[in-house]
Write a structure and sequence with these properties.
The protein is 64% helix and 3% strand. Strands 1-2-3 form a three-stranded antiparallel sheet. It is mainly alpha-helical. Strand 1 and strand 2 form a beta hairpin.
């Protein structure tokens, strides 16, 4: 009996010693990881990188802030929508456009200001994960209305007015980047697609415009600095992740959060480094980052939940950026070709003839690193990117031109 008591005593002492050692190791590891996190955040601050929402979207002078007009436009839009059945509204017929005209006029005035501040910074700081962005639905609706307005103006042979409607969409796209988030970047992408599709498919594919209109349009399409907004959005997400993890940091889960912070900051450091290289992005590096994020350890680690929750999928994120770059470059090329024809009476034999007067260089396809494709037709031309499948289908235009096959813009004149 005594022998068993002795064994139990030894085992108990061993278990206590192990628990004590584990607790000491946890405290030491937490302190070490917390120190590394502080060092990384200090480095970000030294380099002028944002670590809070106030640094991402600082207050702006009232004379530069169009926020009151945006809010007025939202209210006018909602008032107009209440007058129609949703199915009727979505037809964007002349009556719908007439009802929405006051909201569109206010939106145009708002876009004259350099900034907007629609996100409540107190809400972001208090609960960064549950911040609502209702303005994005309004922005998409404005883009669809302006696209319909462009088509209506085209039917009235008002090409200049139709182009202006589309350029308003593109201006809206750029302004959304004033409050960067990755979600905002995706909304910008959607609105840019709506604007370019309206500009080319609805207006310019089979209609000519003045030299001045082409110049203004090319300038506006080129004005969106995609990489700038993309990188700012990624840095904003990193700052929001820091705020989110800070809100979870309390005993006894400090050690989990410290490891999660290190993991999340590492992923953002890698993603942002790839983004800063510009398109075409390093596909192998993107796939490697994705693999590291998705690698499942033999023993489930608690911090992995936060890493998966707070970091974007590199593949999906960079594919979205690639598609925007491709559409922008194809559109710039198509507009430059129209300008060349306007001044020379014909289209060039190759894109190199556009350089340097119409384009600084031949645009590169972000998907494969090769020049944008161009084919002169008997009447008109085609320009295209190989798009997401990275396979040149010869400029074959499919019905869903944004998603499958080549991304093609075709001129019928």
């Amino acid at each position: 009996m005594r022998r068993w008591l002795k064994v139990i005593f030894i085992l108990g002492a061993f278990v206590i010693l192990c628990l004590f050692s584990l607790a000491a190791l946890t405290v030491w590891d937490t302190a070490r990881n917390s120190s590394k996190v502080r060092e990384e955040i200090a480095r970000l601050k030294r380099e002028g990188e944002p670590t809070s929402w106030q640094e991402i979207a600082p207050p702006v002078p009232k004379q530069l802030d169009g926020t009151p007009l945006y809010r007025k436009a939202f209210a006018q839009l909602e008032e107009a929508q209440r007058k129609f059945d949703p199915k009727v509204w979505q037809t964007y017929n002349p009556k719908v456009l007439q009802a929405a005209r006051p909201a569109l006029q206010t939106l145009r005035k708002a876009l004259e200001f350099q900034h907007m501040r629609l996100v409540d910074p107190k809400q972001i700081e208090a609960n960064p994960l549950n911040t609502k962005f209702p303005q994005f639905d309004h922005f998409r609706e404005f883009a669809k209305l302006l696209q319909a307005e462009a088509a209506q103006r085209k039917r009235r042979n008002d090409i200049k007015g139709a182009v202006e409607s589309c350029l308003t969409i593109l201006k809206l796209c750029r302004r959304i980047g004033d409050e960067p988030r990755l979600l905002a970047f995706f909304v910008q992408s959607t609105i840019f697609f709506i604007g370019v599709r309206g500009l080319w498919e609805e207006v310019l594919a089979d209609a000519d415009a003045s030299r001045g209109t082409y110049l203004a349009t090319l300038s506006e399409v080129r004005a969106w600095d995609i990489d700038r907004d993309f990188i700012r959005a990624l840095k904003a997400e990193r700052a929001i992740s820091i705020l989110t993890l800070k809100s979870f940091k309390q005993p006894p889960r400090d050690w989990i959060i410290a490891v999660a912070e290190l993991s999340v900051l590492k992923v953002y450091r890698q993603i942002i480094a790839v983004a800063q290289e510009g398109a075409p992005y390093d596909r192998k590096e993107i796939e490697q980052i994705e693999t590291e994020i998705e690698r499942k350890p033999l023993i489930p680690l608690p911090h992995r939940f936060f890493t998966l929750m707070l970091t974007p999928s590199p593949t999906i994120t960079f594919e979205a950026a690639n598609r925007i770059h491709a559409l922008q470059r194809v559109t710039m090329t198509a507009l430059a070709l129209r300008l060349y024809r306007k001044e020379n009476g014909r289209y060039p034999e190759n894109l190199q003839q556009l350089v340097p007067k119409y384009l600084p260089s031949v645009p590169i396809d972000p998907y494969d690193g090769k020049p944008i494709r161009y084919r002169k037709l008997q009447k008109g031309f085609k320009v295209w990117s190989v798009d997401g499948n990275r396979k040149d289908d010869g400029g074959v235009k499919v019905r869903d031109w944004l998603r499958k096959g080549d991304l093609v813009l075709e001129s019928k004149i």
